[in-house]
């Protein structure tokens, strides 16, 4: 058994709790003043203790002054993840992605090229627009059997880097939404050989490295910047995240730029509750080896029961791609199309009739996530799944997965298209025109259409199909059905 690290506490969270326990006369923000007279409904909903811990920033003994509890908390996080430095974020991993784009821009200024995995999260594309970067896209592995995108191969990264003039950075995504892990060590070697830093969006791998049966984290494999969406599978509150800086060849150049990017993307009133949750999540991951192991075992029990029943399939059992070097054991992806079901409808039905919430669905799959330390009722989930019958809206209407559309041809820089005068026209009429917006089927938030790309009939059909599916949503669409699109005027 791996030894459990010594519990070094959660210094920032403890400082917030100590502050809340004081006998205070609050004549400052937040305006609720933690008082039953000014905020009775808030206290009734959250409880007095939570409201009292919602404190203002810049307090001595909490986050102000040398060696304050917040700085100690971030130092402990850097040590836990193996980072040179770690920043706590309260605007989610989306903030980290935008920060990374701004950092790449600061390395060379606007118009600079960066190599970007085309299945990047939409928030990094937002960052490209803000920073005025020119993306050179590298194509990820596409699993045509299920219509899902995974990671990037070192071969593809090397190809795009060789064809790109003076790139300033590389951005890749791993693990995928389905838990497939790319070869970060090889990708970092390729990027560093080209003389550029590599940023890894490890949003779905905040827990990596905290148990011997989990994949290693990206920092340990040579990444220079790593995005950690800590609330996803790290245990912190929603909208909290971390950005880690590796102690590699670019650390000296990147560190001041990350700090500058933080200052123009952060809230000037960061939530003490979110920051405390990051501190506590780190503590929990570091000391929770046994609990994490129990979650891994529970996830395997789900997979085993599904396999033994022979009705549905386990998606990760079909992976035989050399680009996938590991799999997150806390992700359970179930092929329901094999039994004649529509994945979106199954997810909605389980929520509606059984109170069972899975993370995402595609037309052919549902994906369950187990937070590290969580042991769900395996029988409740598996039995409910097998009680479903593939009739009516639950039935799959086709024999093939909805394929991911081919991306449209870039015609303008994303920033130029986004800021250009635009007109709104019918989706069919927009085919062949230049998109002014980023549109991404959610989940997982991978843009299917970017500002500056030519709109294709294939992309329009895909987005409208997703929008019409149970629980379907297209981020960036100006109407829920994707009946209309914004295009560059000229």
TrEMBL record:
Keywords: Decarboxylase, Lyase, Pyridoxal phosphate. Coiled coil: none annotated. PROSITE patterns: OKR_DC_1. GO terms for molecular function: carboxy-lyase activity. It comes from Terrimesophilobacter mesophilus. Its cofactor is pyridoxal 5'-phosphate. Gene3D superfamilies: Molybdopterin biosynthesis moea protein, domain 2, Type I PLP-dependent aspartate aminotransferase-like (Major domain). Pfam families: OKR_DC_1, OKR_DC_1_C. Residues 227-241 form the Orn/Lys/Arg decarboxylases family 1 pyridoxal-P attachment site domain. This is Amino acid decarboxylase. Belongs to the Orn/Lys/Arg decarboxylase class-I family.
């Amino acid at each position: 058994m791996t030894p459990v690290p010594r519990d070094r506490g959660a210094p920032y969270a403890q400082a917030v709790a100590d502050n809340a326990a004081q006998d205070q006369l609050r004549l400052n923000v937040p305006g609720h003043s933690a008082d039953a007279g000014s905020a009775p409904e808030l206290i009734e909903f959250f409880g007095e203790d939570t409201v009292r811990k919602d404190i203002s920033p810049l307090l001595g003994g909490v986050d102000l002054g040398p060696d304050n509890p917040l700085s100690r908390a971030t130092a402990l996080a850097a040590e836990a993840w193996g980072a040179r430095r770690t920043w706590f974020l309260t605007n989610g991993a989306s903030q980290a992605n935008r920060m990374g784009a701004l950092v790449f821009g600061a390395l060379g200024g606007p118009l600079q090229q960066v190599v970007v995995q085309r299945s990047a999260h939409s928030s990094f594309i937002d960052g490209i627009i803000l920073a005025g970067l020119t993306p050179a896209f590298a194509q990820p592995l596409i699993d045509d059997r299920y219509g899902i995108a995974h990671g990037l191969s070192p071969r593809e990264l090397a190809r795009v880097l060789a064809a790109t003039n003076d790139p300033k950075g590389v951005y890749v995504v791993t693990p995928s939404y389905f838990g497939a892990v790319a070869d970060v060590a090889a990708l970092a070697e390729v990027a560093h050989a080209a003389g550029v830093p590599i940023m890894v969006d490890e949003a779905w791998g905040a827990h990596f490295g905290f148990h011997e049966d989990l994949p290693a984290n990206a920092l340990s494999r040579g990444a220079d910047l790593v995005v950690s969406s800590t609330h996803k599978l790290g245990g912190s509150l929603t909208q909290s995240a971390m950005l880690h800086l590796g102690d590699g060849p670019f650390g000296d150049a990147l560190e001041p730029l990350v700090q500058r990017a933080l200052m123009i993307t952060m809230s000037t009133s960061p939530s003490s509750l979110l920051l405390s949750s990051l501190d506590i999540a780190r503590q929990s991951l570091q000391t929770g080896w046994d609990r994490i192991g129990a979650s891994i075992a529970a996830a395997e029990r789900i997979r085993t029961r599904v396999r033994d029943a022979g009705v549905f399939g386990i998606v990760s059992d079909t992976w035989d791609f050399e680009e996938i070097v590991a799999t997150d054991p806390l992700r359970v992806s179930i092929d329901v199309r094999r039994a004649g079901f529509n994945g979106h409808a199954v997810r909605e039905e389980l929520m509606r009739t059984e109170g069972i919430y899975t993370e995402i669905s595609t037309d052919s799959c549902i994906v369950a996530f187990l937070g590290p330390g969580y042991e769900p009722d395996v029988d409740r989930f598996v039995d409910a799944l097998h009680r479903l019958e593939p009739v009516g809206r639950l039935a799959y209407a086709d024999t093939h997965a909805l394929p991911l559309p081919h991306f449209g041809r870039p015609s303008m820089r994303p920033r130029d298209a986004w800021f250009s005068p635009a007109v709104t026209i019918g989706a069919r009429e927009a085919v062949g025109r230049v998109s002014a917006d980023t549109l991404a089927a959610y989940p997982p938030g991978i843009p299917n259409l970017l500002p500056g790309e030519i709109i294709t009939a294939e992309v329009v059909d895909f987005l409208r199909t997703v929008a019409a599916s149970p629980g379907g949503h297209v981020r960036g669409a100006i109407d829920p059905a994707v009946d209309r699109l914004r295009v560059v005027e000229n």
